[in-house]
Amino acid sequence: xxxxxxxxxxGRGQRLVxxxxxxxxxxxxxxxxxxxxxxHAVREIPGAKYAGxxxxxxxxxxxxxxxxHSYAAVVDAIQQYRHQGPFLSAAxxxxxxxxxxxxxxxxxxxxxxxxxxxxxIRTVLSFRLFTTARSVxxxxxxxxxxxxxxxxxxxxxxxxxxHTALAVGGAQPRDRVRHVLDNWDVVTQAKSVxxxxxxxxSSEAFQMLKRLSLSSSNDLLRLSQCVIDKARQL
Length: 234
Fold this sequence. Notes:
Elements: H1 10-19, H2 30-44, E1 50-57, E2 62-67, H3 70-82, H4 86-90, E3 96-99, H5 109-118, E4 123-131, E5 135-143, H6 151-169, H7 174-182, H8 184-198, H9 202-216, H10 220-233
Helix pairs in contact: 1-2, 1-7, 2-6, 3-5, 8-9, 8-10
Organism: Mycolicibacterium mucogenicum (Mycobacterium mucogenicum)
Protein name: ANTAR domain-containing protein
GO molecular function: RNA binding
């Protein structure tokens, strides 16, 4: 499997900032930014082999905006032709969707059959980037092995997708996002606190942090530190 894991090393956050356009995102086109972020996703998300950004209008007309390999476009063409698949099912309704083993997944039989015949892809991870009244976009990550993505890969993918959406949307909190990535151990500690307090799994704890971050207008790192500090006071 390709990709590296995020930890607390200071270089990884900077790589994400550089992928989004360095210090002058406005000078780059949206497509160029998306291409860099797709390339970056393959390098940084553990298990990732291919990536692409897919958009759809209403009614669903899929467009593979950028890709790291033609397989991403093949998968989108199959979804368009068959009117079924993970992007069409998830992008309008869910932030994240993971298909652990395409051979064993029975949700989209025609899509599954064609993808297995046409590509080596076995695992799919989808992150919604934006939704409007008539359009939706997602960062799509693929792997050739079944069960290629674990919860850690999903969490890192969420951070990459969030920064992609911010960069393309014109918001540029680069220092803040880089700081979160370079101090990911704080998020991991906060997850452990929530897992123990609420008897939930790692994925559920991370979802709790995300929801609390959005509802409180605090970034993920600041909120995580608050969770840790409060636990120490008990």
